[in-house]
Amino acid sequence: MSTAASSSGPSSATATISSVATSIIPPFQPASDFVPAELNGADWEALRPLYTALVERELHCRNCLQRLLLDRSELDAAASEAFAILYTGMTCHTDDAAKSKSYSDFVERVQPELKRIGFELDKKIVNSVFAKELDKGRYAVLLRDLAAGVELFRPENIELQTQESKLEQEYQTLIGAMSVEFDGKVQTLPQMGRYQELTDRAMRESAWRAVAKRRLQDAEAIEALFDKLVTLRQQIARNAGFASYRDYAFKARRRFDYTVADCSAFAEGVLAAIVPATRRLTGERVKALGLEAARPWDMAVDVRGRPPLRPFSGGDELFERSQRLFNRMDPGLGELFAVLKDGSSLDLDSRAGKAPGGYQMNMDRKRVPFIFMNAAGLQRDVETMVHEAGHAFHALLARADPLVSYRADIPIEFCEVASMSMELTSHPFLDEFYSSADAARAKRVHLEGIASILCWIATIDQFQHWIYTNIGHTRQQRRGAWVDLMKRFGGGADWTGVEQELGSLWHRQAHLFTSPFYYIEYGIAQLGAIQLYGSYKANPKAALDAYKSALSLGGSKPLPELFAAAGLRFDFSPERITSTWAAIEADLAALPA
Ligand SMILES: [Zn+2]
Q1: Do 508 and 299 contact (CB within 8 A), yes or no?
Q2: CA of 390 to the centre of ligand 1 (A)
Q3: How far does residue 91's CA lie from ligand 1's centre (Å)?
């Protein structure tokens, strides 16, 4: 399948997309003609004169400022699309040294320049006397975000952030290099994951122990690397005038609409409503498997000893079946999904020389989404496909906005509502992939997964709060804090004899290393997605109409307003979590074990 990354010119997919004349996909005109169509956004020498012209441009009135915002938007979109083309190119062809070099050249040479000049522009806009004259309804979110960036920016932090990126990369390298010799061959850790689904318990245990042993080999190195990251981050925060990195991170992540106290409330709610559910499910698992206790290697196997689900074979089949699923769910969403096929926006199949995982990325100038995944015919691939489709719907529905920040910088807490709710609303249509018995099994796997991920989110989030508010802690204390959290939020597996493994379990959560404080977003979004599923069951058309109109707002409104537009409450109090979770409990009760 061809990819956006392999198209060299910036205009190749535009014609295909705009020729799809449909009611639901908003048409668009480029926001300005300031940026030549053929500009190479990967070349700093090409970008620089345009950015410099914007910084030096004299502003005489409110309209001048609005024009500057539009011109900048188009220029930012060109640079961002260049990055997206390089990134998709690299992840689709990890074995192509030239692609990987062009990507790292951009990261090392162009991105720091973009940061510096971007700050100059942010400052010019925020400090302009005409900023106050702009329409608040339209520009308040943009100005608020720019002001936060200006407030946080310190030139001396650029160097520290580069060091931080290097340490983050070191972590990726350490983890990526882990492999074990097992079952007669050298295997990567993701490959080892498959053994956890085997019905042979002894095999599961020895696979689990082989992986744990390999991880422990690097435990000291990972702890040392993490110490360095924490120290560096505290310095970055202090340079920016913050006493704690947590306060800095909240502002840097644009958390204007929820607080540290809300994160604690989320954790309390998970503890009250969801931890008991996961422990009950583990209890049922123990009983069904005829065990005395569930060990860490007993958590992924099918309790009735059935082989793994095989919903499709190959990316084309995955796409066609998903197309039928969305056509039935909602004709408008079906139309949006069909656009992906026409726009060379997909690279679905797993193959050698491709990065792991899945993502959706916008081509900001052409305003088309791109979906990357490693489909291997598994149940979770179906979840990933409908998940990434939700992100793509978001991109397509918001594409008419002339400002790239409103098209692309949408709060993650709401982006993940767009995607996670599709995982749930696809439940009634899973017969496109499965027999009815298998569909019921796929639904159960998905819902049980939501229970455990919510507990894991609370654990990871609370751990980060602990780390960055207990300055000067020892490794021993950190480990103690982690184990305490695992005791509170864990799903009831028995870790006797593998305490060392338990104590360093957090080493595998990349966000702690590469995106500090980024994780509770998934929990907030999941609560929104469950609510949307609830309103979908009550009135499918009204729920999906609200979903689509909320998505079309992009990032132009504050987070609570985006939730409200979709008919959702932005509330993660224990009471709300308990009542939201009840809907999932009802579904679980109706499904066969
Ligand atoms: Zn997502």
Answers
A1: no
A2: 8
A3: 17
CA 4 to ligand 1 center in whole angstroms: 20
- How many angstroms is it from 547 CA to the middle of ligand 1? 16
Distance 235 CA to ligand 1 centre (A): 31
Pick the closest to residue 501 from 530, 479, 472, 522 (CA basis).
479
**What is this structure's pTM?**
0.91
Series of mean pLDDT values for 10-residue runs along the chain (593 residues): 32 39 71 93 97 98 97 97 93 88 90 92 97 97 95 91 86 86 90 89 97 97 97 97 96 96 97 97 96 96 91 94 98 94 82 82 93 90 95 96 96 97 98 97 96 97 98 96 98 96 95 94 97 96 98 98 98 94 94 88
Check if the beta carbon of residue 229 is closer than 8 Å to that of residue 164.
yes
CA 283 to ligand 1 center in whole angstroms: 30
Task: Return residues with CB closer than 5 A to ligand 1 (ion).
Answer: 419
Q: Ligand 1 center to residue 135 CA distance, Å?
A: 32
- Alpha-carbon gap, residue 87 to 103, rounded angstroms: 6
C-alpha 110/C-alpha 104 separation (Å) is 10
Q: Per the structure block, which two tokens stand in for 294?
A: 């569930």
> 559: CA distance to ligand 1 center in Å?
17
**What is the Cα–Cα distance from 284 to 269, expressed in whole angstroms?**
23
Beta-carbon contacts of 27 under 8 Å, excluding residues fewer than 6 positions away, are: 18, 400
Q: Half-sphere exposure of 281 toward its Cβ, with a 13 Å CA cutoff? A: 25
For residue 232, the 8-state DSSP code is: H
Provide the token pair at 59: 């502003």
Tokens of 136: 């608040």
State in Å: Cα 459 to ligand 1 middle: 20
| Cα 52 to ligand 1 centre (Å) | 35
Q: Give the C-alpha separation, 407 to 421, whole Å.
A: 20
How many angstroms is it from 16 CA to the middle of ligand 1?
A: 26
| Element (DSSP H or E) covering residue 220 | helix 219-239
* Overall residue count recorded for the chain in this entry: 593
**Ligand 1 center–CA 469 separation, angstroms:** 29
For 136, phi then psi, to 5°, come to: -65, -40
Q: For residue 591, how many C-alpha atoms fall within 13 Å in the half-sphere facing its CB?
A: 22
Tokens 């931890």 found at: 275
* Ligand 1 mean position, distance from CA 593 (Å): 28
AA identity, residue 440: A
CA of 419 to the centre of ligand 1 (A): 6
